[in-house]
Protein backbone atom coordinates (compact mmCIF):
# COMPACT_ATOMS: atom_id res chain seq x y z
CA UNK A 1 0.00 0.00 0.00
CA UNK A 2 2.87 2.35 0.80
CA UNK A 3 4.54 1.73 -2.55
CA UNK A 4 1.22 2.12 -4.34
CA UNK A 5 0.59 5.47 -2.63
CA UNK A 6 4.07 6.75 -3.52
CA UNK A 7 3.54 5.84 -7.16
CA UNK A 8 0.16 7.60 -7.31
CA UNK A 9 1.60 10.74 -5.73
CA UNK A 10 4.51 10.86 -8.13
CA UNK A 11 2.86 9.92 -11.43
CA UNK A 12 1.45 12.23 -14.10
CA UNK A 13 -1.37 9.90 -15.11
CA UNK A 14 -2.84 6.47 -14.40
CA UNK A 15 -3.54 3.99 -17.20
CA UNK A 16 -6.35 1.50 -16.58
CA UNK A 17 -7.25 -1.58 -18.61
CA UNK A 18 -10.86 -0.60 -19.11
CA UNK A 19 -13.11 1.55 -21.27
CA UNK A 20 -15.77 4.22 -20.84
CA UNK A 21 -18.38 2.03 -22.50
CA UNK A 22 -18.16 -0.47 -19.63
CA UNK A 23 -17.36 1.57 -16.53
CA UNK A 24 -17.08 5.21 -17.51
CA UNK A 25 -18.71 6.39 -14.28
CA UNK A 26 -16.10 4.59 -12.17
CA UNK A 27 -13.19 5.89 -14.24
CA UNK A 28 -14.53 9.40 -13.73
CA UNK A 29 -14.96 8.82 -9.99
CA UNK A 30 -11.40 7.49 -9.75
CA UNK A 31 -10.05 10.54 -11.57
CA UNK A 32 -11.86 12.84 -9.16
CA UNK A 33 -10.65 10.84 -6.18
CA UNK A 34 -6.93 10.81 -7.00
CA UNK A 35 -6.77 14.16 -8.78
CA UNK A 36 -4.80 12.70 -11.69
CA UNK A 37 -5.50 12.11 -15.35
CA UNK A 38 -6.98 8.62 -15.78
CA UNK A 39 -6.45 7.08 -19.21
CA UNK A 40 -8.43 3.98 -20.20
CA UNK A 41 -6.25 1.83 -22.45
CA UNK A 42 -9.21 -0.23 -23.65
CA UNK A 43 -10.01 -3.77 -22.58
CA UNK A 44 -7.32 -5.23 -24.88
CA UNK A 45 -9.14 -8.50 -25.60
CA UNK A 46 -6.89 -11.27 -26.93
CA UNK A 47 -7.24 -12.16 -30.57
CA UNK A 48 -10.12 -14.52 -31.17
CA UNK A 49 -9.15 -17.92 -32.56
CA UNK A 50 -9.60 -18.66 -36.21
CA UNK A 51 -12.91 -20.19 -37.21
CA UNK A 52 -10.90 -22.93 -38.88
CA UNK A 53 -9.62 -25.15 -36.08
CA UNK A 54 -6.27 -26.81 -36.48
CA UNK A 55 -6.51 -30.48 -35.55
CA UNK A 56 -3.35 -32.11 -34.30
CA UNK A 57 -2.37 -35.49 -35.68
CA UNK A 58 -0.59 -36.57 -32.51
CA UNK A 59 -3.70 -37.62 -30.59
CA UNK A 60 -3.73 -34.43 -28.52
CA UNK A 61 -6.32 -34.39 -25.68
CA UNK A 62 -7.65 -31.15 -27.17
CA UNK A 63 -8.82 -33.10 -30.23
CA UNK A 64 -11.12 -35.14 -28.00
CA UNK A 65 -12.38 -31.95 -26.34
CA UNK A 66 -13.44 -30.41 -29.64
CA UNK A 67 -14.90 -33.66 -30.91
CA UNK A 68 -17.06 -33.70 -27.79
CA UNK A 69 -17.97 -30.01 -28.09
CA UNK A 70 -19.06 -30.49 -31.69
CA UNK A 71 -21.75 -32.89 -30.47
CA UNK A 72 -23.27 -30.48 -27.92
CA UNK A 73 -26.12 -28.03 -28.43
CA UNK A 74 -25.29 -24.37 -29.10
CA UNK A 75 -24.66 -22.27 -25.96
CA UNK A 76 -25.34 -25.27 -23.69
CA UNK A 77 -21.90 -25.99 -22.19
CA UNK A 78 -20.39 -24.39 -19.07
CA UNK A 79 -16.65 -23.79 -19.10
CA UNK A 80 -15.21 -24.13 -15.58
CA UNK A 81 -11.78 -22.77 -14.73
CA UNK A 82 -10.08 -21.16 -11.74
CA UNK A 83 -6.62 -20.56 -13.17
CA UNK A 84 -3.37 -21.11 -11.33
CA UNK A 85 -3.48 -18.34 -8.70
CA UNK A 86 -6.42 -19.76 -6.75
CA UNK A 87 -5.29 -22.70 -4.65
CA UNK A 88 -8.55 -24.52 -4.02
CA UNK A 89 -8.82 -26.85 -1.07
CA UNK A 90 -10.03 -30.42 -1.37
CA UNK A 91 -13.37 -29.47 0.14
CA UNK A 92 -13.81 -26.62 -2.37
CA UNK A 93 -12.93 -28.76 -5.38
CA UNK A 94 -15.29 -31.50 -4.24
CA UNK A 95 -18.17 -29.06 -3.66
CA UNK A 96 -17.68 -27.62 -7.16
CA UNK A 97 -17.63 -31.14 -8.59
CA UNK A 98 -20.80 -32.18 -6.78
CA UNK A 99 -22.45 -28.90 -7.80
CA UNK A 100 -21.67 -29.53 -11.46
CA UNK A 101 -23.08 -33.02 -11.15
CA UNK A 102 -26.27 -31.77 -9.49
CA UNK A 103 -26.78 -29.07 -12.13
CA UNK A 104 -27.05 -31.75 -14.85
CA UNK A 105 -25.56 -29.26 -17.31
CA UNK A 106 -22.89 -30.21 -19.85
CA UNK A 107 -19.50 -28.85 -18.77
CA UNK A 108 -15.79 -28.69 -19.48
CA UNK A 109 -13.61 -28.26 -16.40
CA UNK A 110 -10.01 -27.15 -16.84
CA UNK A 111 -8.52 -28.35 -13.56
CA UNK A 112 -4.87 -28.27 -12.57
CA UNK A 113 -3.95 -31.15 -10.31
CA UNK A 114 -3.94 -29.68 -6.78
CA UNK A 115 -0.86 -30.12 -4.61
CA UNK A 116 -2.91 -31.95 -2.01
CA UNK A 117 -3.80 -34.68 -4.53
CA UNK A 118 -1.38 -37.60 -4.68
CA UNK A 119 -2.59 -38.47 -8.17
CA UNK A 120 -5.04 -37.19 -10.77
CA UNK A 121 -7.60 -39.68 -9.49
CA UNK A 122 -7.39 -38.10 -6.01
CA UNK A 123 -8.22 -34.64 -7.38
CA UNK A 124 -11.93 -35.42 -7.76
CA UNK A 125 -14.63 -37.17 -5.72
CA UNK A 126 -14.67 -40.97 -6.10
CA UNK A 127 -16.76 -41.98 -9.10
CA UNK A 128 -17.32 -38.41 -10.29
CA UNK A 129 -15.72 -38.86 -13.72
CA UNK A 130 -17.65 -42.08 -14.35
CA UNK A 131 -20.98 -40.62 -13.23
CA UNK A 132 -20.60 -37.49 -15.39
CA UNK A 133 -18.90 -39.08 -18.40
CA UNK A 134 -21.90 -38.44 -20.65
CA UNK A 135 -22.39 -34.88 -19.38
CA UNK A 136 -18.96 -33.38 -19.07
CA UNK A 137 -15.20 -33.49 -19.41
CA UNK A 138 -12.52 -32.86 -16.80
CA UNK A 139 -9.21 -31.79 -18.33
CA UNK A 140 -6.27 -32.14 -15.95
CA UNK A 141 -3.58 -30.06 -17.59
CA UNK A 142 -3.28 -27.47 -20.34
CA UNK A 143 -6.26 -26.79 -22.59
CA UNK A 144 -6.76 -24.48 -25.57
CA UNK A 145 -8.84 -22.09 -23.49
CA UNK A 146 -9.53 -19.39 -26.06
CA UNK A 147 -10.52 -21.95 -28.69
CA UNK A 148 -12.84 -23.63 -26.21
CA UNK A 149 -14.44 -20.34 -25.16
CA UNK A 150 -14.95 -19.48 -28.82
CA UNK A 151 -16.72 -22.75 -29.63
CA UNK A 152 -20.45 -22.29 -30.44
CA UNK A 153 -21.45 -24.94 -27.88
CA UNK A 154 -20.07 -22.96 -24.93
CA UNK A 155 -22.56 -20.53 -23.40
CA UNK A 156 -21.34 -19.76 -19.89
CA UNK A 157 -18.43 -19.85 -17.49
CA UNK A 158 -17.99 -20.68 -13.81
CA UNK A 159 -14.82 -18.95 -12.66
CA UNK A 160 -13.13 -16.70 -10.09
CA UNK A 161 -13.92 -13.36 -11.84
CA UNK A 162 -10.31 -12.42 -12.49
CA UNK A 163 -10.27 -9.39 -14.81
CA UNK A 164 -8.37 -11.06 -17.66
CA UNK A 165 -10.78 -13.98 -17.77
CA UNK A 166 -13.78 -11.61 -17.57
CA UNK A 167 -12.55 -9.93 -20.76
CA UNK A 168 -11.80 -13.23 -22.51
CA UNK A 169 -15.24 -14.60 -21.67
CA UNK A 170 -17.45 -11.58 -22.32
CA UNK A 171 -15.98 -11.00 -25.77
CA UNK A 172 -17.84 -14.20 -26.71
CA UNK A 173 -21.06 -13.13 -24.97
CA UNK A 174 -21.05 -15.92 -22.37
CA UNK A 175 -23.11 -15.60 -19.22
CA UNK A 176 -20.97 -15.49 -16.08
CA UNK A 177 -21.23 -17.44 -12.83
CA UNK A 178 -18.68 -16.00 -10.43
CA UNK A 179 -17.05 -17.52 -7.38
CA UNK A 180 -14.38 -15.01 -6.28
CA UNK A 181 -11.51 -15.81 -3.93
CA UNK A 182 -8.54 -13.41 -3.88
CA UNK A 183 -7.11 -9.98 -4.78
CA UNK A 184 -9.44 -8.07 -7.16
CA UNK A 185 -11.85 -10.95 -7.75
CA UNK A 186 -14.52 -10.03 -5.15
CA UNK A 187 -14.67 -6.42 -6.39
CA UNK A 188 -14.88 -7.56 -10.02
CA UNK A 189 -17.70 -9.91 -9.06
CA UNK A 190 -19.69 -7.12 -7.40
CA UNK A 191 -19.31 -4.94 -10.49
CA UNK A 192 -20.45 -7.71 -12.83
CA UNK A 193 -23.45 -8.55 -10.64
CA UNK A 194 -24.35 -4.86 -10.39
CA UNK A 195 -24.36 -4.61 -14.19
CA UNK A 196 -26.51 -7.77 -14.53
CA UNK A 197 -23.77 -9.60 -16.38
CA UNK A 198 -23.15 -12.26 -13.74
CA UNK A 199 -24.67 -14.15 -10.85
CA UNK A 200 -22.53 -14.92 -7.82
CA UNK A 201 -22.51 -18.22 -5.96
CA UNK A 202 -23.91 -17.71 -2.47
CA UNK A 203 -21.55 -18.18 0.47
CA UNK A 204 -22.20 -19.01 4.09
CA UNK A 205 -21.11 -16.80 7.00
CA UNK A 206 -17.78 -18.64 7.18
CA UNK A 207 -17.23 -17.90 3.44
CA UNK A 208 -17.70 -21.55 2.46
CA UNK A 209 -20.05 -22.59 -0.33
CA UNK A 210 -22.02 -25.74 -1.03
CA UNK A 211 -22.86 -27.95 -3.99
CA UNK A 212 -26.55 -27.02 -3.90
CA UNK A 213 -25.81 -23.33 -4.41
CA UNK A 214 -23.32 -24.13 -7.18
CA UNK A 215 -25.98 -26.14 -9.01
CA UNK A 216 -28.75 -23.61 -8.37
CA UNK A 217 -26.65 -20.68 -9.59
CA UNK A 218 -25.50 -22.51 -12.72
CA UNK A 219 -29.03 -23.45 -13.71
CA UNK A 220 -30.25 -19.90 -13.05
CA UNK A 221 -27.60 -18.48 -15.38
CA UNK A 222 -27.71 -21.10 -18.12
CA UNK A 223 -31.27 -22.37 -18.52
CA UNK A 224 -33.77 -20.80 -16.08
CA UNK A 225 -36.31 -18.38 -17.50
CA UNK A 226 -35.43 -15.77 -14.87
CA UNK A 227 -31.83 -15.82 -16.09
CA UNK A 228 -32.67 -14.67 -19.61
CA UNK A 229 -31.83 -11.05 -18.73
CA UNK A 230 -28.31 -12.13 -17.77
CA UNK A 231 -27.87 -14.04 -21.00
CA UNK A 232 -29.21 -11.15 -23.05
CA UNK A 233 -26.92 -8.64 -21.32
CA UNK A 234 -23.92 -10.91 -21.88
CA UNK A 235 -24.68 -11.06 -25.60
CA UNK A 236 -24.92 -7.26 -25.72
CA UNK A 237 -21.65 -6.90 -23.80
CA UNK A 238 -19.85 -8.92 -26.47
CA UNK A 239 -20.31 -5.98 -28.85
CA UNK A 240 -18.09 -3.87 -26.57
CA UNK A 241 -15.71 -6.50 -25.17
CA UNK A 242 -15.11 -8.06 -28.58
CA UNK A 243 -14.66 -4.81 -30.50
CA UNK A 244 -10.94 -5.03 -31.26
CA UNK A 245 -10.97 -1.88 -33.37
CA UNK A 246 -12.40 0.12 -30.47
CA UNK A 247 -9.79 -1.10 -27.99
CA UNK A 248 -6.73 -1.29 -30.24
CA UNK A 249 -7.23 1.68 -32.55
CA UNK A 250 -9.18 4.12 -30.39
CA UNK A 251 -8.17 3.53 -26.78
CA UNK A 252 -4.68 2.18 -27.22
CA UNK A 253 -4.10 4.74 -29.93
CA UNK A 254 -5.07 7.55 -27.55
CA UNK A 255 -2.74 6.16 -24.89
CA UNK A 256 0.20 6.02 -27.30
CA UNK A 257 -0.58 9.58 -28.42
CA UNK A 258 -0.50 10.75 -24.80
CA UNK A 259 2.84 9.04 -24.17
CA UNK A 260 4.40 10.56 -27.28
CA UNK A 261 3.26 14.08 -26.48
CA UNK A 262 3.31 14.31 -22.69
CA UNK A 263 5.89 11.92 -21.24
CA UNK A 264 9.56 12.86 -21.41
CA UNK A 265 12.54 10.62 -20.74
CA UNK A 266 13.05 12.39 -17.43
CA UNK A 267 9.61 11.20 -16.38
CA UNK A 268 10.91 7.63 -16.30
TrEMBL record:
Keyword tags: Glycosyltransferase, Transferase
Species for this entry: Prunus yedoensis var. nudiflora
Pfam family, one: UDPGT
Entry's Gene Ontology molecular function annotations: UDP-glucosyltransferase activity
Keyword Phosphoprotein (UniProt): no
Record InterPro entries: UDP-glycosyltransf_plant, UDP_glucos_trans
The protein's name in its UniProt record: Putative UDP-rhamnose:rhamnosyltransferase 1
Family to which the UniProt record says this protein belongs: Belongs to the UDP-glycosyltransferase family.
